[in-house]
Amino acid sequence: MNRRDFLLLHTEGSKRAADLSCEKLFMHYEGLCSGYHQAPEECGTFDDADWWAGEPPLSIANSDPDAFFRSLHGEIQHVDSLTVLDMEWLKQGDFRIRVETLLAAFKARGHEVIYQSPERMRREHRESP
Predict the structure, then answer these.
(1) What is the pLDDT of residue 3?
(2) What own/partner pairs with CB < 8 Å and gap ≥ 24 does 112-118 have?
(3) pTM for this structure?
(4) 101 pLDDT band (50/70/90 cuts)?
(5) What is the mean pLDDT of the chain?
(6) CA-to-CA distance for 7 and 99, rounded, in angstroms?
(7) Distance of alpha carbon 87 from its chain centroid, rounded?
(8) Does CATH place domain 3-34+64-127 in 4.10.410?
């Protein structure tokens, strides 16, 4: 998943802003925690049957959620305000703690956090052309 899928950077006048989708961030976080299966790239020719004759060895790669959230914290330090979307996804235990810690650190540095309620999002969506 591309970071742009859950963190949208933009400007509002002279301020730098970002929208953080908790739904998409949660999906990425789940992927980080579960690991993913990755097989080596297949190569060869049809004359060389060894490359397709059997299953490739399984390789499970785990990414570090701590390193990921540190990296995300570094990226959002360059914005003035952060709008948190899809807050209903913050009901998940460890994920909620990580996101709340991220937001608290962001606010502690004097930045603004805006919590977007689902009702406000529906209203703005109806009002947009």
Answers:
(1) 62
(2) 112/80, 112/81, 112/82, 113/81, 113/82, 113/84, 114/81, 114/82, 114/83, 114/84, 115/83, 115/84, 115/87, 116/19, 116/83, 116/84, 116/85, 116/87, 117/87, 118/87, 118/88
(3) 0.69
(4) very high
(5) 78
(6) 13
(7) 14
(8) no
Percent over 70 (pLDDT), the chain: 65
- Percentage of residues in the chain with pLDDT exceeding 90? 45
Alpha-carbon distance values, 80 to 15, 34, 86, 109, 120 (Å): 6, 33, 20, 10, 21
Task: Report helix, strand or coil for 6.
Answer: coil
Residue with tokens 């859950």: 6
Q: Which residues contact 11 (CB under 8 A, 6 or more apart)?
A: 17
Q: Is the dihedral of CA 18, 1, 28, 68 positive or negative?
A: negative
